[in-house]
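Ticket #534: bound-state structure for adenosine-5'-diphosphate.
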Amino acid sequence: MVNCEVREQDGIAVVALSGDVDLESSPRVRDVLLDCVGAKRPVLVDMSRVTYIDSSGVASLVEAHQSARKTKTTFALAQVSQSAMRVLELARLDKVFIIHSSLADGLRNAG
Amino acid sequence: MVNCEVREQDGIAVVALSGDVDLESSPRVRDVLLDCVGAKRPVLVDMSRVTYIDSSGVASLVEAHQSARKTKTTFALAQVSQSAMRVLELARLDKVFIIHSSLADGLRNAG
Amino acid sequence: MAEAKKQTDKRGSSGRARLDGKRIVQIRIDSRPEALRLVRAVVGEAADLCGCSENCVRDIVIAVDEACQNVIRHAYGGRPNGEILVDIRREGDRIAFNIIDFADPVDVSKVKPRSLEELRPGGLGIHFISECMDDARFRTPPDGAGNRLWMVKRIE
Amino acid sequence: MAEAKKQTDKRGSSGRARLDGKRIVQIRIDSRPEALRLVRAVVGEAADLCGCSENCVRDIVIAVDEACQNVIRHAYGGRPNGEILVDIRREGDRIAFNIIDFADPVDVSKVKPRSLEELRPGGLGIHFISECMDDARFRTPPDGAGNRLWMVKRIE
Ligand SMILES: Nc1ncnc2c1ncn2[C@@H]1O[C@H](COP(=O)(O)OP(=O)(O)O)[C@@H](O)[C@H]1O
Ligand SMILES: Nc1ncnc2c1ncn2[C@@H]1O[C@H](COP(=O)(O)OP(=O)(O)O)[C@@H](O)[C@H]1O
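RESOLUTION: The complex was predicted; output attached.
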């Protein structure tokens, strides 16, 4: 139920997530995010089409964030959908993650 | 769960239905359609935002169609959503009702 | 709709009619029109989960909705305090839907579609069900239940 | 989460814990991650049907999903063949959600949120539930069941 599209733009790995990131689909999201972070390019996650994200999806984002910190890679989110933002706020992560309101902003700042 | 908006345009009563027309909501749709037909103006039903219609909703359309015939009023549908069209086809009514692919077409021909 | 072939139904050790296949989900509602959208929501998701195409999902939702409507209007005669159980199971490459009520047993010979030649409101539900499903018939209900309409659709 | 106050639970004549309120819908799934979206679909529709705002619907869906996830991962330890029953009832201006499983009784003293100060993956479910619901606690399960998590949300 989730779709992860990875594309390269200006040397940045843009991961576009769409659909529900839940207990079923979050392991795949986790793998994709950790792969991208592991490749040591900046990673920007487009969350505009995330219709739902649960605590396991948030855990995948936290893992990727921590892995990026270790390898000093940029890991950021862009245009987070309302419903995903609610969950990030509940997790008090809206102040921890780098969150850009637009993809353009993210691309300018992630490189 | 259904919304019926009636507006007057070029002497035609345009009824915009949106949402699910089902056993719960079809009595209201029926009342609105019969009222409009009773006012003896041509009636054009915009079905572009009908997300679901069941046999009771179809029955309301049939009643309005028959009432319009009796009073020699025009009763037509416009831009029928895919899911509503499937149900009209199942009922073999796609060849009985006047169906316009666009609202503009309907307005030109209903007057 | 084919009449119930009671003698061929499988039964568990208690004499209870056994529902075939691997259960995906079961939903229980009261016999109220406003509950139908709860059924449509879960049935649509279940069909999608099984890999049905958009058109297949649409037809399944139509058939299950119409079947539940008939239970509300005919089996329970419009009484809102009856129960309806919709049990969804996977049977190989098909999905089976059991619509179970606790009303008096229905005279299944009266459950049939009308001719569509005649233009009149109503009388479309059974026709929709037979068009949208691959098979549909009344079968032995579980103990304590009144009726069970069993419908199957090939996943496509 | 408050610990179960077993002594205050109402019981029916058979000693069975009685669920309060007027039932809106009940859904039964297996303890599989892919079934969660069936639960979200019906819970979202039910909350909307009761007149909840979009934000209220969203919070309800989050809490019920997390509660079911915990049953899958902890109560059933990841076994996919357990059953989960989600019973949704109206209690005046509130909606009550009972998440019932048939696993071994849980040590409710271990069910608690962690501090959010520490940045680490996991450990958010209980916190989400308490933030999204007005009340949530384990209460006496019905006969034959293992656990019942009862959660309520004021309709707004
Ligand atoms: N679940 C049911 N219980 C009892 N009678 C039923 C049931 N479903 C259908 N019927 C009978 O079959 C007839 C045809 O049903 P249907 O095609 O859905 O049209 P309608 O319900 O509009 O009459 C009904 O009028 C009713 O007599
Ligand atoms: N339904 C349950 N059955 C048994 N234990 C549970 C249940 N729900 C929660 N717990 C316990 O409470 C802890 C906290 O749960 P939670 O906040 O959802 O985070 P997580 O599940 O990621 O650990 C769990 O680790 C588990 O020990």
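RESOLUTION NOTES: Chains C and A do not touch (no CB pair under 8 Å).
TICKET STATUS: resolved
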